[in-house]
Design brief:
The protein is mainly α and 180 residues long. The protein has one domain. The chain contains six helices and no strands. Helix 2 packs parallel to helix 4, helix 3 runs antiparallel to helix 4 and helix 5 crosses helix 6. The termini are far apart. The model has no long low-confidence stretch (mean pLDDT 86).
């Protein structure tokens, strides 16, 4: 069984960050069955990146992704932007504290962040659209926490691999290669 370290061995590249958010956005845009709450992969990835590398993503990116989700779902413009911004702020605020906890303790903190985010979206939707929430709203923070656990484990496993030094291949083994 492979153990996953708690910190990143190397900093994520901008390309890796962008591709992970694009994959998360595509998963959010995918149709999900209505019997289970659809996971908010973007929210989980925002929490992962704001905990693991808090200086890379900020509230602006979270707000922009929230606007994209508002447009996609056809809801009041800004409700997901507000929820994602609060979620990112909470993750940035907790990133040093979470290192001292076990995975179960980290998951409970992240669950509270997702519960706050879901509450914000639900309250804004209730005030703006007079929509009463269904029972899936209660399960949404738990589903998002499970998605966060999977995304965090996958990102830690990918970025904890050490990249070895590039091997210099000398096509002529009898002559020394020049290095400048």
């Amino acid at each position: 069984m492979m153990t996953v370290p708690k910190t990143l061995a190397r900093a994520p590249t901008t390309k890796f960050l962008t591709y992970s958010l694009l994959v998360g956005l595509l998963l959010n845009l995918a149709p999900w069955p209505s019997l289970v709450p659809s996971p908010d992969v973007i929210a989980a990835l925002l929490v992962v990146w704001n905990i693991r590398s808090p200086g890379r993503l900020g509230l602006g990116i979270a707000w922009l992704l929230g606007i994209v989700m508002d447009v996609h779902q056809g809801v009041l413009l800004g409700q997901h932007a507000l929820a994602y911004s609060v979620l990112s702020y909470g993750a940035i605020s907790l990133h040093r504290r979470l290192d001292g906890f076990s995975l179960k303790g980290q998951a409970s903190h992240v669950f509270a962040l997702f519960a706050l985010s879901t509450t914000i979206v639900t309250l804004v939707r209730m005030m703006a659209e007079s929509v009463t929430p269904n029972w899936l709203v209660i399960l949404s923070p738990a589903v998002n926490t499970l998605v966060w656990l999977a995304a965090d484990g996958a990102i830690l496993a990918l970025l904890s691999r050490k990249i070895g030094p590039a091997r210099i291949v000398n096509p002529k083994p009898n002559k020394p290669s020049r290095t400048f």
